[in-house]
Amino acid sequence: MTSFHEFGLAESITRALAEENYVTPTPIQAETIPVALSRRDVIGIAQTGTGKTAAFALPILHHLAADRRQPERKCCRVLVLSPTRELSGQILDSFRAYGRHLRISAALAIGGVPMGGQVRALQNGVHVLVATPGRLLDLVRGNALRLGDVECLVLDEADRMLDMGFIHDIRKIVAKLPARRQTLFFSATMPRAIAELAEQMLRDPVKLAVTPVASTVDRVEQRIIHVDRAGKPAVLVDVLQRESIERALIFTRTKHGADKVVRGLVKAGIAAQAIHGNKSQNQRERVLAAFRQGGVRTLVATDIAARGIDVDGISHVVNYDLPNVPETYVHRIGRTARAGAEGVAISLCDAEEAAYLRDIEKLIRMSIPVTGHRSSPRLHRPPAAPSRDPGPPVQAPGNGRHQRRNGGRREQERREHPGKTAGGIAAVAFLHRSARSGRDLDPRKPR
Fold it and tell me: Which of 35, 138, 240, 339 has the least CB density, counted as fewest CB within 10 Å?
């Protein structure tokens, strides 16, 4: 398909697409729209930024245009589930944009905002409801929503739902839906748990994959900088000051880490904002709007929050923390080099992340070029006064361990200097903490 007119969509929809300057369908749209128009179930494998939203929204709107039946009170005809508030809001905006010439009602059900407005919006029923799983179940339990009239279910970013622990909520939701429905299932990757979920939910689905699961964008220039953990803040500042940056998206593994990075950048004179799950919905929307409009050029985010960021013009992605799930690396760097542009992805890798880097390179089937090795400045002490005794130098007890503790590198030092270990109870406590942290850091290991 080379034009949206070839799909046979309702005239009111093609008119809206022309107003949005949509001319040629993307590969996932060209593959999915004809199948979804035929009412078949679909499994679509496509990376972020490939046009998945239009791929499912356009055929759904076409069916709603053909069948003008009004929804029942407290019911919806179409249910779209997405993992984050930001992504949910963007999906709703797309439905409203493509369906602007149709008389359909649409609503949003997400956490982080009062539920009263959402309850009122559902009183008379809606054609399309876009929701996050947790808030949707809250509405069902509060008798504000009934799911018995759902004709079409969409799961977007299913793999991220798995990462966020929503799979049990999804199973509860699906159990309340009619057996006779159309299901459109989209995911950037297809791990075994997601494949099993899809097999249980879908009936004779058509499987569409427009890009290999492990592919990375060709137009992204990827680089690695090896640096110890304590040196990362200074290296990040150096990268942001040296590079010609239009917009930079920086990824951290934790919410606390995102806030800490922002504080360091601001202290260095670089304006930055953070977006993560601890921020209120209003805060997140304000930061995203500023980033989109260019008021903020550096955004620090966790993977979950960034899943809903759909912003063109991101010239640089920086992995302050390398992800411990290699597919997440593909998601992250896919935020740049959109709409035919080029982009740069720079990853700061410390010694403890070397295994993550090997997993990433194995997945994407390439070795990422190394462009630097950096170390943090060491603490300088004045030389000791010469001793009259020419015997061997004596180190003050505990000083070396104290400095290494401040640098956060105890485990590495233990490997390099096995003789310098704490004794007794302290050693047992250290080993216990190391074993526990090693178990908790990698969610892929069985527990």
Answer: 339
